[in-house]
Amino acid sequence: MSTNEPDQAVATEADEETAPVPRFAYSILAVIMAIFCLSSVVLNTTVIWVTIRHRQLRQPINYALVNLAVADLGVTVSGGLLTAITNSMGYFSLGRAGCVIEGFSVAFFGIVALCTVAVIAVDRFVIVCKPLGIVHFHPKHAVMGVAFAWIWSLIWNIPPLFGWGSYQLEGVKTSCAPDWKNPDPLNMSYIMCYFCLCFAIPFIIIMFSYLTLLWTLRKESALLYRSKAEAKVARMVIVMILAFLICWLPYAAFSLAVVFNSQFYIHPLVATVPMYLAKTSTVYNPIIYIFMNTQVRGFSFLPRHCTYFSSIKTGSLPRCQYETR
């Protein structure tokens, strides 16, 4: 899709006859996205509200968790909600300006969330694996990590607004994203930088941190003792890794395939699946990173027995078993 063909960038109501999928498929996608949006708003708003209300939860690592909830809400409102509306209409009705705004907003908040997950992963790695010795996560570290996530995302999502890259319709043509398909050298240079610096590096950091953490937990269990709490922490890390891979790996793989082969074709409805999986992270993030944390659940409306991780008594994620408070 070329940047010098703006007429192709936005669908109109007249395009419904040549829509890539039947009308009923748009309705189904609208319902699915609406469910994701409602779940995300409820879960992430609860996270923010509970943390702000209770001073006991204002610990450094929870700064990053709240930032993750804010970024996920941003993705939900700017992307999920608008996508549900445009799917219900069967075409993208917001015009070229709306496409650019939506594409920028979703990409911006999405990369903030991804970088925040990387910050959390590094914190867990440093605390549990102790590569730097005994290190405590202080408020200044949390603020630096959160600030970096926002600044880094802004730096790499602004260029398409000024001509380096662009935001175009994707999938079934009811949402916008960075233009992965345009073979123009200028656009390709942006996409390669964007993919490496905003997807590949956070992905590698997250996988390395959690796999090393899991290996450390298993090694210490084998050499010392195998407590139930330790085993549950290991399961939690496995859940984190699997959820991350399921939601982000298909989108990254599809994007990479398009980058290296602009003629690569996949049915628009199938191409929409990785996009929707990536957006489900706004739902699984608060469930895994927050509501599996008994410290947070103790101050929320959720029952303490709602997850088998309830025996982990002392706070934020795997940190609890290896840190003296």
TrEMBL record:
One of its GO terms (biological process) is phototransduction. Keywords: Chromophore, Disulfide bond, G-protein coupled receptor, Membrane, Photoreceptor protein, Receptor, Retinal protein, Sensory transduction, Transducer, Transmembrane, Transmembrane helix. Signal peptide: none annotated. It is found in: Membrane. It is a multi-pass membrane protein. Residues 43-289 form the G-protein coupled receptors family 1 profile domain. One of its GO terms (molecular function) is photoreceptor activity. The keyword Disulfide bond applies. The chain crosses the membrane at residues 24-52, 64-86, 106-129, 141-159, 188-215, 236-260. InterPro entries: GPCR_opsins, GPCR_Rhodpsn, GPCR_Rhodpsn_7TM, Opsin, Retinal_BS. The keyword Transmembrane helix applies. PANTHER family: OPSIN. Belongs to the G-protein coupled receptor 1 family. Opsin subfamily. This is Parapinopsin a. It comes from Erpetoichthys calabaricus (Rope fish). The gene is parapinopsina.
